[in-house]
Specification:
- The chain is an alpha+beta fold.
- 32% of the residues lie in helices and 35% in strands.
- The protein has 3 helices and 4 strands; from the N terminus they run ββαββαα.
- A 4-stranded antiparallel β-sheet has the order 2-1-3-4, covered by helices on one side.
- Strand 3 and strand 4 form a beta hairpin.
- It is elongated, with a radius of gyration of 13 Å.
- The relative contact order is 0.24.
Length: 88
Amino acid sequence: MKRKIRVKTRLKLFRNGKLVLDCTKRKNSQILLQLEHVPHDKSYVRVDYPGVGWNDSFHENDESLKMALSSYLEKSLLDFAGIKGESK
């Protein structure tokens, strides 16, 4: 049986310059839940595409992080990486 290739998303949240959360998730909805529940003032997101590479960025607000995350998980980018949109 062939193993599914999945995107991994790593989220780091900072408050007053200190790390308050460091987690890796496979589902975008879980990342968004963490953003809502953990108080923070800065964030870092990294999306790993197995065997291809990654995208990462730092953000000062949640809206810019959500925009970056949606662009990192865009269907055309996932198709290029050989992943069929299983990160949702």
